Amino acid sequence: MGVFDGICGFLHLGGRNKVAVPFGVLFKKFKSVLERNNRILTLMADMGDKLGGEYVFDRRYIESACEELSDQIFKLVSDLSILNRCRNVPLFIAFEAVRQEIADELAGRHHFPDTPPTLPLSALRADMGEAAGGKFAMLGELKNVLQLPVPDGFVITTGAFADFMAKNDLPRFIRAQTERLDADEEGAIHDVSAEVRRRIQEAALPRSLTRGIAEALDALGKRTGGLPQQLAVRSSAWNEDGETSFAGQYESVIGVAPRDVPEAFKRVVAGAYSPEAWLYRRRRGFKEHEAVMAVGCQVMIDSVASGGLYTYAPLTRKEEGIFVSAAWGLCAPVMSGEVETDSYLIGRRAPFPVISREIAHKPRQMLLTGETGAAYADVAPELADAPCLTDDALGLLGEASVSLEKYFKRPQDVEWTFDATGRLFVLQSRPLVFSGQPERRTGAIDAATAKAEVLFSGRGDVVQRGVAMGRVHVVRVDADLDDFPFGAILVAHHTSPRYSRVMPRAQGILTDIGSPAGHMAAVAREFRLPTIVGCGVATEQLKTGDEITVDATQNVVYRGLVKELRYFELTEEAVYEDSYEYRLLRRLLKKITPLNLVDPHAPDFTPASCRTYHDITRYIHERAVAELIELSESRTGILDASARKLRSPLPLNLSIIDLDNEAPGDTREIEVNALGSLPLRELMIGLTASGMWATDPVPVDMSSFMSSLTRTLGVGGPGSEKLGRNLAVVSKEYMNLNLHLGYHFVLIDAYVGDAINDNSLYFRFLGGVTDFSRRARRAHCIGKILERADFRVELHDDLVVGRLKKFDAEAMRAKLRLLGGLVGFTRQLDVRMSRADDPRCFAEEFLTAIKPVLEDAHDNA
Amino acid sequence: MTTPDAATAAPSRRRMLILDDEPIVVKRLKPTFQKAGYEVAIFTDSASALAAFEQTPADIVITDLKMEGLDGIAFLDRIKALSPDVGVIVITGFATLETAKESFHKGAFDFVAKPFKLADILDVVSRLETFLTTSRHAG
Which pLDDT score is estimated for A105? Predict the structure, then answer.
C-alpha cells in the first residue's frame, strides 16, 4: 500500500485541511485513463484476432500479451485512484482476482471446477472435460453447439466421483494396490483388479450424490415428458475421446432402470479398474491420480437400426466416401462385433449418393425389454435380408458426418442410432485413426493448387481457418437463409449474426465487408466454420450455384472443387484448434474480453461485479468521467476549477470545466458563445445547425429504438445520475469532450491554434448494447464518413478511432462541425441500420446533408 | 522433431528447414509450406536441425533466434558456413528485434516479428525465391 499512501498523502485526502489540487494534475490523470482505455481495447481486440488461425503465435506471445494487459489495467486502476481519492479497494480486489486467474491458467494450475454432483447435458461444452469427462463434454458440444441430435441426459461429475472415492477411502487402498502392480504387473493384475472392483461395488454413495442423482433424474423426466424407462450409463473419463482414444476400454451399462442408476454408476467406476483398462492406462504413461472418471446417464433410444460410420474412407486414389455399417436394433452388438451388418459407401457431399451397398443376412437384433434391460430377439423374416437403411436415412448420416468432420477437422468414427420415427441420434464421435499416404498428401497438393484457377486471394481477414468445398449460396435478404442448402458456402455482402442459424448447415462463409472481431466471427469460430470476412469482391465474383473451394488457412478462393486440399487438411499431423496454445489463449480470453457491465444505470454496475478485464476497463471509463464532474462540482475546495452546465436546446446534459475561467465559484448554466472555446463552439454549430439531432428517427422496430436511443441520461434509479453524465473540459484552443449517448460513447479531443503543426483532432466512438450486426454496421458507416473527411481510421468491432493532424485552423473548424453533425447522426444510425442497406449509402447521405454547414464554416472564416 | 515425409518427392521440390523451440510455430508453418510445394523438415532444437542440415542442406531456412543451446545467430553462422547460398529468414518475438538486426550482418535475408500472419511469411519467402534466382543468374 506504500504507493497509495503516498498518493493519498499528496492529495491530503485523509487530512482535515483540504488544499486545492491544481486541476491540471487531475486532468492529466483523466486523459491518461482515456488513453489507456483505448490501448487496452486495442490489445484485447488484437488478442482475439489471433484465434482466427491466420496468425502464427507462440506461448511467449500469450505470456507477454497477458502481461502487458495486466500491467495496463493495473495502471488504469491506479490512475483512477488519484481521481477518486483512493476509494478503489474493491476495484483492486476485482483486478487481483482476474489477474490471479490468468496467472494460474498460464502456470497450468487448473481450477477444479466446483460443480454440483450432476450436470445436465444441456449445460456441457467441449471445454468442460475436467468436470464432465472427455466423452460427455464432447457430446455436450455436439448437442449444444453443433445442434446435432444427442439423447438427453446428465453427467455425474468428476467432483462427485472424487467425493465418492474419498468417502470410501478408496484412493489410499488403490495406491497400496498399485505398489503390488509395480512389483509384478503381469502376475498381480487379476487379483488386484478383482479386489479393487469388489471394494468399489460394495462402497456406499455419499448422500449428496444419491440426492443429486435423484434430482437429475427428476429434471430429466420433466424435460422428456415422463421418467425414462431405461438409461444408458456410460463412462466419461479424463482424456477419453481426446488424443488417446480409450475406445472400448471402459464399461457402459445399457438398459438401466432409473432406480438402478447408483448401482450402474459403481459398475462403470469399477470398470476403470478392469485388468484391460488398468494396464492400458499404465502402459500409456497415465499416472494413477489421472484415473478420474465422470459417468454419464442418457435416455435409451428405442432403436430400430443402429451402427457405426467412418466419415472418410479413402478407397483408391480416385474415390472416397463415407463408410456406414448398420444392423437392426441397438448399437451395442454392432460395436462389439456380435451381429452381422450391412455395409454402405456413400458420397461425401450432399445429396450423399449411394456408391455401393452390401446387404447382410441379419437374423438377430438386440432390443430394449421392459424389465430386464436389453436382450436379443429374432428379426422378422422379411426384414432379415432387407437393407436396414433407406436413402433418406443415409442422407441424414451424411449430413451428420460432414458436420462432425467440419468441426473436428479430422475424420471421425461415429456411433449412431435411428428410433421408430426415423429420428437420428448421435451416440459418440471420436477421431478416426487414419493414416494418410504421405506421397499422395504432399505430392498432389501443390500440383492441384497450381492447376486450380484462383478466383481471389489475400483479400480480407481470416476469421476461422480451414478448407470449405461446395456450392455458393448468396444471401442478400433474410429469406435467402430459409432455403439454405446443406453443405453450401454462404456468400454475403456483410457479416451478420443472423447467419448463425444456418452455420450448422454451411461449409464456409465469405463476406465483402466485416470485422474479424465481430459477433458473427465469434459464432463462426464456435462452429470452426472456415470464414473469411472483408473479401471485397465475393458477391461480385460469385453467384449461387458456383462450385468453389475456400482455403481459409492460406486465404485463397479457387474455382471448382480442389479435393486434394480437403485431404491435406484431414491428414494434417496436428489440428491447430486442438493445440495447447490455442486452447490456452481461448481460455484466457474468456477471463479478459466478455463484457458483463453494460448499463451504468443498473444496480450491479459496481467494482464487485467486474469479472473480466473488459468489465474493469468499462467501469473505470464511466467512473473517471463521473469523478471529474463530481470533483469540480463539489464546493469543498479540493479542486481549483468548477463545472457549469451548458445551456443547450438539445438534451446533452453536458457539464463544462473551463480552464480559462477566472471566476471558479460561478456554477450557473452557461451559453456556448459565452465560452471562449473555439473547438466546442464549432462542434455545437455542427450539432445544431446540421439538424442531425432533431431528425425524427425512422419509426421502425420501436423496441430496439426504445432500448438503445431514448435512454437519456440520468433517468435511472436513485443516485444513478452520478454515472453516465457528459463532460467537456475546454479552453480557448482546446476541448476534451466525453459524451455518453444512449449506450454508446463518443470522445473527442481537439486542439486548434495558430501553429498548424500543433493542431490535432482525435475522435473515438465505442458502440454499446444493441444487436451486434447493427453495431458493426454503424461502426463501419462512421468509419467511412471519417475516412472521407481525411481522418486516419482504425476499426475494431464497434470501436472506431479517427485521427487527424496538422490542418490549418479553417479546415479544423470544418472538421469539428462535421464531427458535431456526426455525433447527432450516430443517435439515428442504430435505428436506421435495422434495414439491411449498404452502410455506405448512409455515409453518402450524411456527407451530403452536412455539406452546407461545412461551407458556412469556410465563409465565416 | 520429425524427418521430412516426402522422401519419394520429385527431385525438383525445394527443401525447407524450419527451426523454432516452440512446437506450435513449426507445426503451423509445415503444412503452409507443404501446400506451397516445399519439402519441409521441422525441428524444435538447434542441434538436431544442424545435424540434419549437415546431412542434407536446405534451400531455405526459417529459424527462431532465441533458443536453448545453440542460439539462432550461431545456428545461422554454421549453416551459412556449410552452404553460403542458403536463404535464411529469421522469425523472432518483439523482445529480440534488436538481435534480429544483427542477423542481417550474418547474412539473413529478412526477419519477421512474431506473431505474424501466414500470408506475411509466404510473401517474404517468395521475395527470397526471386532474390535467390536473380543472384544465381547474376553469379
Answer: 84
- Asked whether the beta carbons of residue A439 and residue B8 sit closer than 8 angstroms, the reply is yes
Query: Consecutive 10-residue runs of chain B (139 residues): their mean pLDDT?
Result: 41 86 91 90 93 95 84 90 93 72 85 90 94 75
CB contact under 8 A, B25 and A573: no
- Residue A458 contacts B, CB cutoff 8 Å: yes
Residues of A in contact with B28 (CB under 8 A): 56, 576
Beta bridge partner(s), residue A236: A294
Query: For chain B, what are the domain ranges?
Result: 14-138
What are the chain A neighbours of B118 within 8 Å (beta carbons)?
A: 54-56, 553-555
Starting at the edge strand that comes first in sequence, how are the strands of the sheet with B87-93 ordered? B38-43, B14-19, B60-64, B87-93, B110-114
A591-597 long-range contacts (CB < 8 A, ≥24 apart) are A591/A98, A591/A101, A591/A102, A591/A105, A592/A44, A592/A47, A592/A69, A592/A98, A592/A102, A593/A44, A593/A47, A593/A48
**Chain B environment of A580 (Cβ under 8 Å):** 24
Report the residue of chain A nearest B26, measured CA to CA.
A56
Tell me what ipTM this predicted complex has: 0.86
Distances (CA, A) of B10 to A658, B4, B16, B52, B58: 76, 13, 14, 20, 15
Strands (DSSP E) found in A315-384: 320-328, 342-346, 354-358, 364-369, 373-378
CATH superfamily of B14-138: Response regulator (3.40.50.2300)
Cα dihedral value A214, A219, A223, A227, nearest 10: 20
Among A59-68, A258-267, A839-848, where is mean pLDDT lowest? A839-848
A446·B35 Cβ contact <8 A: yes
Q: ∠ at Cα A218 (A213, A224), nearest 5°?
A: 120
Contact residues on chain A for B119, CB-CB shorter than 8 A: 54, 458, 554-555
**Per-residue confidence (pLDDT) for residue A246, from 0 to 100:** 54
Would you state the cell numbers that stand for residue A244, as one nine-digit string? 488417446
Q: Is the pLDDT of residue A768 over 70?
A: no
Please tell me which residue of chain A has the smallest CA distance to B28. Answer: A56
The Cα of A449 is separated from the nearest Cα of chain B by a number of Å equal to 8
**Smallest CA–CA separation between A557 and chain B, in Å?**
14
What gap in Å lies between CA A727 and CA A737, rounded to an integer? 6
Residue B23: closest CA among chain A residues belongs to which residue?
A: A58
| A77-81, A237-241, B68-72 — most confident range | A77-81
- Ranked by mean pLDDT, the top range of A142-156, A302-316, A705-719, A742-756 is A142-156
Asked if A555 is an interface residue toward chain B (Cβ–Cβ < 8 A), one would say yes
Give per-residue pLDDT as tens, A773-799: 666 677 888 888 999 899 988 877 678
Tell me if B117 and A54 make a contact (CB, 8 A cut-off): yes
Q: Encode burial over A616-645: b for 16+ CB neighbours within 10 A, e otherwise.
A: bbbbbbbbbbbbbbbbbbeeeebbebbbbe
Q: Is A61 on the interface with B (CB under 8 A)?
A: yes
How many beta-carbon contacts under 8 Å exist across A and B? Answer: 96
- Res A416: pLDDT: 96
Tell me the chain B residues in contact with residue A446 when contact means C-beta distances shorter than 8 Å.
34-37
What domains can be seen in chain A, in order of their start residue? Answer: 24-109+594-635 (no CATH), 118-299 (3.30.1490.20), 303-431 (3.30.470.20), 438-569 (3.50.30.10), 641-860 (no CATH)
The shortest C-alpha distance from B1 to chain A (Å) reads 12
- Which residues in chain B have their CB less than 8 angstroms from residue A437's CB? none
Give the model's confidence band at A663: pLDDT under 50 very low, under 70 low, under 90 confident, else very high.
low
Host H or E run for residue B31: helix B23-35
Contact A61 B27 (CB under 8 A): no
* CA–CA dist A777, A758 (Å, integer): 33
